Each structure stands twice: as C-alpha cells, then as structure tokens.
Amino acid sequence: MYKAPQTPFFPYFIGNYGNSIQSAKQVNGVALARKLAQEIAEELNDPRQITQKSTLAKFNMLVEELRTLDAKQMEQASQELHFNSAQASSHSRQDALKSLAWKSFCDALVEAGTGPAFLQIQKIIEHQQVSDAEAARMISRLPVTARFPDKEYMNSFFNFVRSNNVQHQNQLNETALLAFAELCRKADVNARNAHNYYPVHVYGRVLPEHAKAVAHQYLPYYEQNLKRAVANGDSRKIQAYIRAIGNFAHPKILEVFEPYLEGKVPISNFQRTVMVLSLNELARVYPNLARNVLFKIYQNTQENQEVRVAAVFLIFGTNPSAQTLQRMAQFTNEDQDQQVNAAVKSALENAAKAHSESRQELAQAAQSAIALLSPKTYGLQYSKKWLRDYIVKEENLAYRVSADMIQSEDSLIPNQVYVALHRYLGGFAQRVASFRAMTSSASDLVEKIQEQFTNGEEYQQQSEMNQQFSAEQIFRQFNIKPDYPQEVEALLQYTVFGAKRWAFFDEEFFNQIPRRLNDALSKVQNGQSFNSTKFYNDISLSLAFPTATGLPFSYTLKVPTLVQAGGEVQARVQGHNSNNNNNLFRIPEAVNVTAEIEIVYATELKSELGFVTPFNHERYVAGLAKNIFVNIPVKVAANVDIANTKVEFYMKPMNNQNEQKIFHYGSYPYTAIQNIFDFRPLQENENTKYIFANENKNKFEKVYGEEKTGFAFRCQYKGDQQSFQFADFYNFAKRNDFFSAAFFPWAEKTIQYNNFDVYYDPARSAAKSAKFALNYANKYANKENNNEGNSNNHNNNQNDAVPSSYQPDNEQRMNQFASRAQSGVQSANIDVIDISAQFFGQKNADYVATLAYARSPVAEKARFLFYAGANNANNNKNKVAVDATAYMPNVPLVNAAQAFNADANSRLYANVKSGENLDNGAQFQFQANMKQSQEFRDYFRQSQMYKQCSQQMEQGEYMMPACRNATVAANRLNEAHFSINFDKVSDAVKNYTYQAFAYARHLGYQYQSENFGNPNGQHNKIDGYFKFSPKFDFAQFYFNAPSVAASFKNVPVHQYVADFFAPHPVYSGFDRLMQDTFQAKYQGKDYRGSFATILTVIISFMNSIDFLKRYSNFIVHTITFDL
Which domains does the chain have, with CATH numbers? Predict the structure, then answer.
C-alpha cells in the first residue's frame, strides 16, 4: 500500500535495466512531478500553448510518473505543490500558476490509481487542502482509476468511509459510500469484471480470499446505517444507503432489502422504487437471481404502480427467456394497470428491434412475444422504455442507448427519467454517460419549487386573499378529509468528468432554495472570480505481454481530456430584496450580468503500440494521435428585463489585439524512438517521424464571416485530404447517425495526416463587438382594429409586413405589427417577437426579424406578419416581408352531429415581398384552398368510430370517447389546391428553388415523375395540389411550373408528420401532434350514473402546471349522468 507497484512490461517500470525509472540516478521523482505540473500550469494559463506544447500528453506523462512513486515521495511532491486556491489573488499571475499546478497534480493523483496515490488523496482531504465539492469529485473517480485494489487498498478505503471527517460532510460522505460499494463490485463481487479489468495474469486475482468481507464486514455496516436512517426518517441518507447497497450487487443485498420491499418495515413508495431500481447492478452480475425477484414484484398486482414499472424495466436487463416475455405480453391483456402494461409493451417492441450481437437473444425472445401483447396504444403520458443500438459500417464501432420513463398519474411530467449511453470500440465496451432524474411526485416537486418564489408584495397579498378560497378551505367547509401530500423526495444521477455523480434531496433542501439563491446573489453582486480546471482520462486501456524476442511489448489507448472554465462574473438586480421576512425568493424585475469568461475544451485520442529495450532505455513506438481543441474567450454582458420580457446580450472577444486559435482538429500518424529518461512529449522529440500520404502537399486557407458580420475567422488546413466536397459530408452522414457522430468524432475509415485550425483574426475584423436582443410581447384586443392595416390584403398588392422602421431592436415596429396583425380579427390575442443581431466596429452589420401572430377563439380569421432584414458589413441589404391571412371556420368541437355536417373548408392567402428594396423587389402572391376530399368523407362515414358514435348519439350520449374522437376527425382537411404568382424574381432565387427540387427529386426518385419543357406552364405562375390519403398514411403532390411539371405519388407519410401538416380548422399542428404523441384519443374511463333530483359536482384541480392545463382537454374521463 505504501510502496509503488511493480508493473511489468511498461517503460517507466522496467526501462532502467528491468527496474523502475526511480532507481536511476538521473531521475528525481519528486522534482520531476513538480516540474511537469508547473509546465502544465504555464500552458493552461495561456490556452494557445495547449496544442503547441502537447499539454495533454504531459498530463499523461505526469500520471505515469506518479505511478512509480511511493507514499513518502507522493507526500513530498504534494507538500511542494500545495497551494490554497481560496486565498489566491485574481490579479496575481504567480498565484494563478500555483493554483493551476496544484489542480493538475491533484487530477493526476486521482488518475494514477495506485495505493500511495490513494493514501495521499486521503491526507489531502483530511487536511482540507481541497474544497468539499472537489474532494467528492476526486473520490467519485476512484472506482474507475484504481489500478489494483487489493485487500489493503479496500480496507483503507473502508476506514476512510467510516472516518469522522467524511461522516460530517454530506456530499463527500454520500460519494464515498457509493464509490466504495462500486469498487467492491468491480474488484470482488463481479468476478468477470475483475478478470477483464485488472491485471490478474500478473498479480493473480485482486481479492483471492477476501470475498467474505463484503457480506460479513462491509454490507452489515451499510445495513445498520440504513436502519438508523429509516428510524430517524432521514430521507437523504435513506436514499444514499439504498443506492450504495445496490452498488455492491452482492446476493446478500436482497436480504437487506427484503423487509422494506415486503412492507414489514414501512418506508415511502419513492424509497421502495429507488430500492428496486438499485437492483440494476445485481441484474447485470447475477441476472437469474435478480430476474426471479423482479418478476415476483411485477406479478404482484397489489404492489405500488411505480415499483412494478421499475421491476419491468430491470427485467429486460437480465436477458429474460422467451417464455418469460411471452407471459408478460399475455398478461398485458389481463392487468388493469395501464402504466405497467405500457412499460411492458414499449420494452418488448423496442427489444424486438435490437441489432447488436449482444442483444440478438433478447431480440429473438421479444419477437416471439410481440403477437401476444395488448392491442391498446399508449402515448407519452404512459411509462415507456426505449432501446436503440447502431453499428457504424466497416469501422467496428457501435453504440447503445437505453432510456426509460416512469410516468405519474397527476402530471404529464414523468416521475423518473433515465438515459444511458454505451459505446463499443473494436469490442471494447464503455459506458459513456448516464443520467437519472427521479422524484416522489413531479407535480408536488413543481409546486414545492414554485412555493419558494414570489413576484412581490402585491402578489403575496393576492395569494393571502386567495387562501380564503383554497382547496383546504373548501374541504373544511364540506367536512372532507383531504389526502395531504407526502414529503417531496428526489434524486439526480449524472456523469461528469468521467465519473458517476449522485445527489439526493429531501424537502428541507427545497425549503432552503431562497436562502441559497440569496447567498449566491450576494456573492456575485460585488464580482466573483472562478476557475474550474479538470483533467481526466475518458478512456485508459493498457495491454502488455512478452514477445519471442524477449522484449516487452505494450499497447495503450488513452483519451486525456481537459475542461477549463475561468473568469469573473458580476450581477446586479432590480426589484429584489434579499432581506424579506417571508422566506421566499423574490423574482427580480431586472437582472444585469457582466462577465469575462474563457472556456477551454481539449481532448486527445492517443493509440500507441511498441516495445522497450531496457538495456539502452529506449522505446520504439508507432502511434496515432487525434486532437480536438476548442477555446472561447469572450467578454459578455446581459440585461434581462423580466417585467417587460426583454433580453439584451452583448459580446466581444476578450483579446482584440492578438490572433487567437479557437478550434483545432489534428490527426497525426507517427513512428518514434524515445529515451525513457527524456520527459518530453513525442511531438518535441527529434526522432518522431510523421507519416504523410502525399508529402503534406494539400493546403488551403480561407476567411469566413468578414463580409457577413465583420468578424473574421481564418481557416487553415494542411494534410492528406485532397479536397472537401459535399459528397464527403454526405457519405459521413450516411455512415453515421447523430449519436455515432457525437460518440466517435475522430472516427475515419483511413489513417491520414490532417491539421485543421480556425483562428479569430482581429486584424481583418471590422467588427469589435456584437449585440443580440430578444423582445416578446403578448397583447389582447377585445375589439377589432380596422384603423391600421388592410384586413383584405390578399385582394391587392398591399403588404402589412413592410415596416415603417428597419432599425434593429425597434419597439415601434413591434407595436406597429401588433396593431396591423389584429386588423379584422375580433377579440384577438396577439403574440409579437422581435429578434436582432448587431455588429459594431469600423463597419457595422445588423440582422432583424419581427413576427406577429393574431388569432381568436371566436373569429374565423387569423393573421401572420413576418419581416426579416439583413445588412452585412459590406452594406449589402436584403429584406423579406410576409403577410399571411387564414380563414378557418369554428367547427363544432363537442357536438358530433353538428361536426359531421359542418363546412370545414378553409383558405390561406399570403403576400410576400423580398429584395434590397421591398417596393421594387420580387413579389409572390400565394393562395390555397383546403378541403376534404370525397374519398376521405366516404372513408370516415364507413369507419367503426363513426358508426359507434352514431349508435351512442341515438341513445343520447354525445360525450363518450368515440364521439369525442369522431368530432375531431370529422373536420380534418386532407386536400389543398394552391397557386403562386410571382414577379421580378432574381436568378439566384430561381437557382436555389431548382436545387431544392433536385434534392427532393433525389430523395423521392421512386415516387416521382416529371415533364421538362412543360407545354402547359404559365408565365410567372406555379399551381398544383397536395393530398393525403383517407388514412393519412400516404401523400400525393403535384405542381405545374413554367418550365417543368412534376408529381410525387404514394409517398409514405409518418403519423406525426401527417398530424402536423394535415390541417384542422381549430386545432393547430402542434395541438394535433400533442394529441397523438400522448395518444389522447379520449381513451379515458367512462362513468355512468342516474340521479333523480339534483347533481352537484365539485372538482378540485390541485398541483397543476401550465402544460397540463393546456392539454388536459386531451386526457379526459367521461362522466355521463341520466337526470
């Protein structure tokens, strides 16, 4: 534990005649560690040097060197580099360097993963040389970085967990509990992982006779503390110990959880759900054992709904048999709990689509059970599980995404969301990230958070007055005993800096939100400096073995990563009093924030293979290094006017004098010979030879942004790529989807030398600063306004979207658009948004967009005005104005008989002007008539839904689900005929239009036919039609242009696309999409009853949210009474 490990085959351990480099006279381990940490600090202080001097390679070199140190050397190096960052001056360069060197050393210490490194981490934490949050981050990384956690290591870790210093720090205590249990699982309980992850062929099994310690020593300690937390009702500790016990994944944890799951010891349903979800690691290590327990929980229909759903999700992680899945599928036809049924159905359907080799057995089992599932359709308001995998063709890369969601009965916001991402590199599996958010009640959580905020004294007085008519008062008057809400509990799990982090919340935490916000606000009002620097290895893989020559051979794959954010921030507020006595946080009327921020992200994928000659201290390697570097140094200021819903954002480069590299991508294949006592990166080694395919002759340089915004960004490329064409990006997109492109940004089919850089060039930048503004207003006009604007502009050439002022961030234009948009619209509700971007300097540029939309629940007419203007740095101007009017009849929504006979035909008119001068520019007149085709009406009247509704109406039942669904479906429009008249259209616009048509023709070539040289084409006119099939599953499109006529027939259409684009006179595209997304086809429960005299209905909507209020009419329970 105190000595440095003796790891064979690797250069720093055998490079000095078979001994560690620490045995060499020319190596002073402590001085070398100090030197490397200080060099890294120098380079971090000037991010331009990070790629030039291979900072990430130096960090890995520091990690490797620390692994050769014993405990005494480690402590000495720590003492020499220690610096209290809290006392550092923000204006002292020396303090900044010392702070960065200390942070780099601590990160390298964590990545070293040896026994001496862990002992030093303990000392650093015990002496409070790092903050509580940083201590927790260091401990959370240990389960990933521990090189060989033997008996001494584990006992030392266990003693650390139980120490008084750790026990009295909640965040550190929870992290240590979870990290220790996870390490026990990896090194001890999971024998397969221990074999694959640790060098067992060198040292033997990690813990050969230590397996009993988990069951007889570690787990009993956790169990006793869980009992104590339950007795004290400490929700936060209960959650932490439940999750930590689950991390062990030892079969004995079932005995610990049994009294709680069986109800012998009462705990909340949330805690029981957490307990079931904590069996996820047991399901991986002992799938058969876990499956038996989880299946019993699922089969118990008297069990809590969320507990059962959690069991369903974990069953699919145990590779269940076909018989098990068939029983579950069949049970969906009998089980009355629709949330559970929805979870089973979604999990089965997604599992059946799996493609990866590891999931083929599950996929086949799921496919055998699909036919037995309930035919019911479940929307997003039900619990769901998603599984997706993807294989990148010809590159031996793959990823897997798992996601699940536990829904609640009282809110559209789920009570639990979980996402996990795994990637596979040539067979090497790695969990990239995971995220879990969970609460006892989403609606209670939202309400609890809302209760901590107030808009001011007037709001508070109004709230006190409303208390007289609160739900509690109503319950008291009617002598009703209410169900008081239980304590709000929540947890959050996320992956950051290569480590899994957990946060547990009880009700007291939410009650402290106002105090925490006030404290944070008081700190930043006078300016707050910050600097967060974190190194970690995203991937660290090492393989080594002897060769027939007697020379040790090794292969390493490492991805060192740097995330750095530093600067100073200051915030001032208006209309906020932190000294109010109501313990609430008063939302300020306005917030002003100024900051100087520099964000740096750098990562290097480095793959090397080679051998060492210990007799002359040389290593011979061939490798590939790929670098990504991003640097964003900016000064920003933001003015947020909450009362008037306006945001202004100012930005300028932090350094307007010197050229700055803001992006770099490099790919460098190389060979090298290096003396192991040469502690420099290979990039600086004279014996490093880069490999070029064509002598590095391909180069290009181009400047972007200079004309558009005034900010000049210079792009340089040098490498083997001969050219960059659209086909290259198309083939990349075809080979990858979104996630694979994000998971493997460095993946290439061939090994090439590439060097691509983007620089901010202040010398060529005419602009020095930028301003972005967003202004929103909502207005209600209870009378028509016909004084301004033309309510029938489709009959003439007038365009109300042409503003009187083209200036950016113009309130006059917003008021003008609001006044014009409401013209002819009775009782209009108007939304106006104005967005602008301005660039200031030697040459100014500005971009503007203003939008106004007026609609009314009582008027058929709706208006839409849109203006956008661009004035670039070269004073080239372009504008566009769109004035659109729609006439949509108010068809019946609750009376099916009237809806069946209603005239739903609708019209749309639009007048568009564009060009540098809107008076003399291009003009477009668009007209569309939307209706129902006869085929659709015949199909609808033959549908089962229509027939069922007709029968119900004969019995006097107009509000049953069939009639509610039929009422909506009866007035959907599936056919539109349109015409476009245009004039003065530039050749550039015509060219863009043809390119768009060519692209559409390429995508839909199997459905398309065309006639060039169209004899029926009319000058400056396009007409045509668009038509959905009666089922809205296919579409046809035809247009007749001056030079070409084309049609697309029988094009398959996704359900959600049809929902959004097939219009309804009343419901918007988004409303229809929400109906299908949540499958709210009025599938609620029906209650029938007879009342002879008086019917009194009292409905109390509690814990509602805006989203639920808006769409609650889609999810209903129909109540029919015979009076």
Answer: 304-486 (2.20.50.20), 777-785+797-887 (no CATH), 891-1084 (2.20.90)
